[in-house]
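Hello,

Our lab assistant flagged a job as stuck in the queue for most of the afternoon. It eventually completed. Since we weren't sure the result was trustworthy after the delay, we are filing this so someone can double-check. Below is the sequence as submitted and the structure that was eventually returned. Let us know if re-running is recommended.
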Amino acid sequence: MIDRTKPVLVTGATGFVGSAVARALLADGRAVRVLARPNSDRTNLKNLSVETREGALEEPASLAAALAGCGVLYHVAADYRLWVPHPETMYRANVDGTRALMQAALAEGVSRIVYTSSVATLGIDGSGAPADETTPSMLDDMIGPYKRSKFLAEETVCGMVAEQGLPAVIVNPSTPIGPGDIKPTPTGRMIVEAASGRMPAFVDTGLNLAHVDDVAAGHLLAEERGIVGERYILGGENLTLREILRRIAVLVGRKPPRVSLPISALMPVAVAAEAVARVTGKEPFVTSDGLRLARKTMFFSSEKAVTELGYAPCPVDTALSDAVTWFKRTGMVR
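-- returned structure --
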């Protein structure tokens, strides 16, 4: 039985998806507590009636303190970058931090956990058909430290469900877009560049885009209706990158890019960009791991979440419009 009388702890609430989850919980009348790093950007928490506990996934003592008295845990936090100068830091947060948080949740006796994984952990159907929760994948299939760390973190959660009775439901968001992308995420950066007219060419790939508020609503549905140990893809529509850029161009009144570049031609650019990033510390716009990922069309099916949870994503044009409007309002797109 899920205990709704106690506060809900949300990790990652200063971030993009986590803040959307916090807003959805507040709209549902829940008492929300958030875990935030002492030096984190709190912009997404402004005007939200939440209790803030300071701590970090790398600090186990802070996790137990943040969970004290909570009945439900939403673990949304993750280090999400397609390039990182020191991959071990990503593993500490995404894998070791997740393990420590799940152990603290077991000790606290929470009644339900919603763990935010990613479609990055899933296999890709070689035929081009949308992948689902049953599409097989292995660690060796994972490209880059982000995908590998999320794969290992999901395996950790699944193992604790089977061996220790961890009451966790797993959700696998596809590519969320929309308001609150303050960093922004790699996809948000692509939208900003395209809407600003700074993306003259593209590679032949595809993504599944979903409105961040729909993804957040899917988290709450997973808590209420999800089966412990099961995973649910929270996605939207499958579109080629060419089509995504065309729709963004329509929204801002620009001409869409027409030049398609082979991935091999961009690899030297990515290598150079990463070399510069190691000096500046700024994440490069194009990375070698990102290009390797682009070789696979990232199409997914949310049918299981729709059927079993009642998940109902909005049209992708609404998501793109809300994203562009928010980036304009914040000054990222002029």
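-- support follow-up --
The delay was a queue issue, not a problem with the job. The result is valid. The chain has a mean pLDDT of 91. The CA atoms of residues 58 and 97 lie 5 Å apart.
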